[in-house]
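To assess whether ligand presence alters the predicted conformation, the chain was also submitted together with 2-(butylsulfanyl)adenosine. Input:
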Amino acid sequence: MYTPQDEILLARSAQELVQSPTEATPDTAALEVLKKVLNYLDWKYYVQDDPVLADQEYDKLFKLLKAIEGAHPELISPDSPTQRVAKGLNASFATVAHYVPMLSLENSYNADDLREWDRKCKVFVGKDNISYTVEPKYDGAGISLYYEDNQLQRAATRGDGVFGDDITVNARQIKSIPLTANLSGKGVQSIEIRGEVIIKKNVFTAINEKRIAAGLSVLANPRNAASGTLRIQDPAEVAKRGLHAVLYNISYHTNQHQQEDDQVLHSHYSALQWLDQLGFATPVKDMLRTDSIDAVIAHCEAFEARRDELPFEIDGMVVKVDLLADQETMGQTSHHPRWAMAYKFKARQATSKLQKVEFQVGRTGNIGPVAKIAPVHIGGVTVGSVSLFNEDVIREKDLMIGDTVLVERAGDVIPYIVKSLPELRDGTEEIIVFPSHCPVCNDELVKTEGEVAWRCVNINCSAQVVERLIHFASKDAMDIRNLGDANIKRFFESGLLKGIQDIYRLDFETISTFNKFGAKSIDNLKTAIENSKQQALHRLIYGLGIRYVGETTAKTLAKAVTDIREFKDWNEERLCSLEDIGPKVAQSIVEFFSNEDNIHLLEELDTLGINLKNTHQSAADTEGAFSGKTFLFTGSLSQFKRNNAEEKVESLGGKILSGVSSKLNYLVVGADAGSKLEKAKKLGTVNILNEEDFIKLLGNNGIIL
Ligand code: IVH
């Protein structure tokens, strides 16, 4: 959709606009440029995963556009990036008929099934050579998009395949769905495009972390989360969920130029390439075209082996006959097209018996029920414990002790109970009784209105104290490596650790009398504790375990002060002026810093030599082995967290860039790297490192990740 020249021009215009003063001039030519630039930035960010500007710079341009349109509403056009922002919805969605019914796919489960289908295809088409495509089978919610005159007119859910819900307002929140596309460039006047709305694994995990911290119910898996989100009646909430849409089929279109059709729409592969060029997200990068059924099978098996490494969930692959003329010859049954076949991966579900439920106390006092099930193997992992999250889950899923339950493990998402099978009950099952008192300190549990979690509000409850200590020492907080969960529990039980400050005055003489504590492990522990004193401020803030303050908020807070104790004088209003801090988070921060015990803790930590100051210099100021060097990480990294690695680079004086350009020195590549890697290869000036190379490079400079 954008030629390399277009890209250079648009990226330059973006830079110029960022540099220029933000006056809201109603100059229509300038307005058009601004809209084009923002649409381009959205495409780079959401489809190509390759941002051109920093977030604040993007926000500046977006606000400018809003200001112009605010002053001149007559200039608002439906393709304006501001028009993704919805204006509210009716109580329920309208039902709409699909232009072409949305069929499902026939399933195959092994190589033999695919060979048999290959044989049938050849008989049907009457050829002994057929070209196939193979692409991922995305595990999300089916969607149909209808464009007319280059504009997105309608989006609908699959529904029953014939009728679906009109969810256009929500689809407009999905930034990888173009609001306009140059379909008429190939003579296409109207078109219905099919695809899948998904939530990437990392986005899904982040959503649930936030929901747990806020006391809300968790979303079971990315598939349910995607389909549930499409039906939310609040488009602003939909926008927050980070949905992504991949388009994989053109089901209907009208074209004024037959010859263009012959060129582009003669095969599935070229049709998807065309959509990709127009700015849609498609499977082309992961697709194979071949006329060998052996190669089809190998591609399916290769993806099954890599399933856990992919950034999104797939439950199989889809093999399609490539030539549309052949597809037409084969036609369809009332349920599925004959020209496509799903290759389903091995099930990640198993049934087991629910033996008992334990109730665990979390860091913030939330009571988490955990189902103990008879251990079962699911996709290579033995599952014996499954979190039930909260009481509502137990009731909604109608769970009883002794029930047979269906358990699913979706990728690296934690296992969960899909449902119970009440039809298998024999009358010996028992109701699960949720405790009224804390299973550890016996204080009465409370439930705040609007929350689903029961909580123990006794902050001295020993379970909470231990969990808080574990959190403080954890990898993403103060990172005290040798003080693991087991040691913390042991030190707590023997009275050596009562609170965070005790970590820094541990009695090593007593510890040396403990089993398995030799001179070496004591030395390691001492060094780890000593090193943690100089951790960056945001790690301390995160480690304190202030409710609703995750890693990102901790970073925002750390940047806003020179000493953490300044927050004593901050009120909610001032906190809310910081990025991404809302009233609820602000209130929790104010509560924390107005508690005398917490202030006393900070004073003690100061006396003990723990860094309470924002000493984190900007990258440009830090001198080190990476001074003047630029880095970028791409793809899913398996051996370390991107955040940590970026911090290490900065601590050595290096700088993190947001995109690949001639200014980039090192690109560190994880699994499934996409356009950034390709671009770096094309440039030829970037050093491309895999995770091991990067770890070695740090090691050479005395840094361990
Ligand atoms: S093609 C007429 N391709 O799987 C053919 N479907 O179990 C339409 N799905 O209803 C389907 N990834 O929602 C196709 N690459 C892919 C797919 C895909 C996921 C979904 C789709 C379909 C369901 C069938």
